[in-house]
Specification:
mainly alpha, 44% helix, globular
Length: 87
């Protein structure tokens, strides 16, 4: 059994792909993390996406289309929140 969901052939991000969430989520500042946690289905603000790309030292420009977390990223965050609640 796999713990990830395969992405559909047509990417939902219009060519903009965030780096792996395991790299940037632990480094993301608390206020930006809280903003994402408030609504996991909402599009990420440009400033949040740029900060994620900056944290991962990605050379990509900011996205031209809205970026949303996919199912795998939301599952990662749910697991992270669960682990933090145990502390």
């Amino acid at each position: 059994m796999s713990s990830t969901i395969d992405r559909p052939p047509s990417a939902r991000r219009s060519g903009t792909t965030l780096p792996p969430i395991g790299l940037w989520w632990p480094m993301l500042e608390g206020p930006l993390r809280q903003e994402i946690l408030e609504n996991l289905d909402a599009p990420l603000r440009m400033v949040v996406v740029r900060r994620i790309l900056e944290l991962c030292e990605a050379d990509a420009q900011g996205p031209r289309a809205p970026v949303r977390l996919d199912e795998n990223e939301r599952a990662y965050i749910a697991g992270w929140v669960h682990a933090v609640d145990w502390n």
